[in-house]
Amino acid sequence: MKPISELGYEDARDELIEVVQQLEQGGLDLDSSLKLWERGEALAKRCEEHLAGARERVEQALAARESEDD
C-alpha cells in the first residue's frame, strides 16, 4: 500500500471509495474497522489538500488574467 502522502487526487479518491465500501459491507473486527476508518480519514484529508491546491491555482490564474486585462 502506497503512503498517502504520495497519492495523487484520483488515486486517493479511488482508495477512499474502496474504504467506504469495505466499511459499509461490515464483517470486519473492531481493530480492522478502526484502522480502515483512520486510513479513510487520512485519504479524505489528502483529497481536500489536492482540491485546495487546485482551487488556489485557478484563483491565481484568474487574478493574473484580470491584471493582464487592466
UniProtKB/TrEMBL annotation:
The record ties this protein, via HAMAP family, to: Exonuc_7_S (MF_00337)
Identify one Pfam family in the record: Exonuc_VII_S
Coiled-coil spans are none
Gene responsible for this protein: xseB
The protein's matches in InterPro entries, at most eight in alphabetical order, are given as:
Exonuc_VII_S, Exonuc_VII_ssu_sf
Q: What does this protein do?
A: Bidirectionally degrades single-stranded DNA into large acid-insoluble oligonucleotides, which are then degraded further into small acid-soluble oligonucleotides.
The EC number(s) this enzyme carries: 3.1.11.6
Q: Is Protein biosynthesis among this UniProt entry's keywords? A: no
- Record's catalysed reaction(s): Exonucleolytic cleavage in either 5'- to 3'- or 3'- to 5'-direction to yield nucleoside 5'-phosphates
Keywords in alphabetical order = Cytoplasm, Exonuclease, Hydrolase, Nuclease
Q: Give an example GO biological process.
A: DNA catabolic process
**Which Gene Ontology molecular-function terms are recorded?**
exodeoxyribonuclease VII activity
Question: Is Hydrolase tagged as a keyword?
Answer: yes
> Which superkingdom does the taxonomy of this entry point to?
Bacteria
State a GO cellular component annotated for this protein. exodeoxyribonuclease VII complex
Name recorded for this polypeptide = Exodeoxyribonuclease 7 small subunit
- The protein's organism comes out as Mycolicibacterium wolinskyi
What does the subunit comment say?
Heterooligomer composed of large and small subunits.
Q: Which family does it belong to?
A: Belongs to the XseB family.
Q: Where in the cell is it found?
A: Cytoplasm
